[in-house]
């Protein structure tokens, strides 16, 4: 029943193949995605997730996330508004059907940024995305990046590092991700990312130019 519902939901919205990004918090997903969206704003669209965490300085409600209370989020999940949702580092996160639909309606490649639970749950749907993992060069570098970002309390930082260890192990299992990118030097990682998406980018450019 559940699966049949998702089948109908997504088959009604054929468009370019979405791309799911995952990888440990602090690996550089947002940095790489922002670069990509800036260079190709008419090719990619970001699926704006919901979260119960507080906005970080510079983050914008409705652009980076929809910031909601736990009560609002739970009610949305109960109503069936979400494709997937997960608890991460003490907060709820989720991808709404509306967020994906909004991007796909513009014939753009829908980008999702989700944790490993999101990856697993999306694999149970008919979304059929390309799965890309962004990995840090090492746990030490990851910890330094998270500390230097200065967005996390010590408790949140430790939770994220614990989750990262688990995620990095699962991510190495064959078949989980289509592409694994180690984000050591940013420009090099960005080049690898662009080449992994080259065909999809060309396809969308062609389609959107002729329509
Ligand atoms: P994520 O979205 O995966 O949690 P961010 O994009 O916020 O990670 O990156 C974490 C921190 O590391 C940010 O402060 C960012 O500026 C920095 N960063 C990202 N990529 C690199 C890189 N290749 N080299 C050095 N610092 C980086
Ligand atoms: P952050 O708080 O650093 O923005 O995100 C923490 C983690 O939550 C990251 O691993 C990010 O990929 C993940 N995340 C963000 N949005 C979603 C979502 O909609 N669903 C799931 N499952 N994870 C998400």
Automatic annotation (TrEMBL):
**Record-linked PROSITE patterns:** GUANYLATE_KINASE_1 (PS00856), GUANYLATE_KINASE_2 (PS50052)
Give the record's keywords alphabetically: ATP-binding, Cytoplasm, Kinase, Nucleotide-binding, Transferase
- Keyword Cell wall biogenesis/degradation on this protein? no
GO molecular function terms here?
ATP binding; GMP kinase activity
What do the Gene Ontology cellular component annotations say?
A: cytosol; photoreceptor inner segment
Q: What family name appears in the similarity comment?
A: Belongs to the guanylate kinase family.
* UniProt cross-references to NCBIfam families, sorted A to Z: guanyl_kin (TIGR03263)
Name the UniProt record assigns to this protein: Guanylate kinase
Source species: Solea senegalensis
């Amino acid at each position: 029943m559940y699966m049949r519902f998702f089948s109908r939901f997504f088959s009604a919205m054929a468009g370019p193949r979405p791309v799911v990004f995952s990888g440990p918090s602090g690996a550089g997903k947002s940095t790489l995605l922002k670069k990509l969206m800036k260079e190709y704003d008419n090719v990619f669209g970001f699926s704006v997730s919901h979260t119960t965490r507080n906005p970080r300085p510079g983050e914008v409600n409705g652009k980076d996330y929809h910031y909601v209370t736990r009560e609002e989020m739970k009610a949305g999940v109960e109503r069936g508004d979400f494709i997937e949702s997960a608890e991460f580092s003490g907060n709820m996160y989720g991808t709404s059907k509306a967020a994906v639909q909004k991007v796909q309606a513009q014939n753009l490649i829908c980008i999702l940024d989700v944790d490993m639970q999101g990856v697993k749950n999306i694999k149970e749907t008919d979304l059929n995305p390309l799965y890309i993992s962004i990995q840090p060069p090492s746990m030490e570098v990851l910890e330094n990046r998270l500390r230097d970002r200065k967005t996390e309390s010590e408790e949140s930082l430790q939770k994220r590092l614990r989750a990262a260890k688990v995620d990095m192990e699962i991510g190495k299992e064959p078949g989980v991700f289509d592409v694994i990118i180690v984000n050591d030097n940013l420009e090099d990682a960005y080049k690898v990312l662009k080449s992994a998406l080259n065909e999809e980018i060309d396809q969308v450019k062609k389609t959107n130019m002729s329509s």
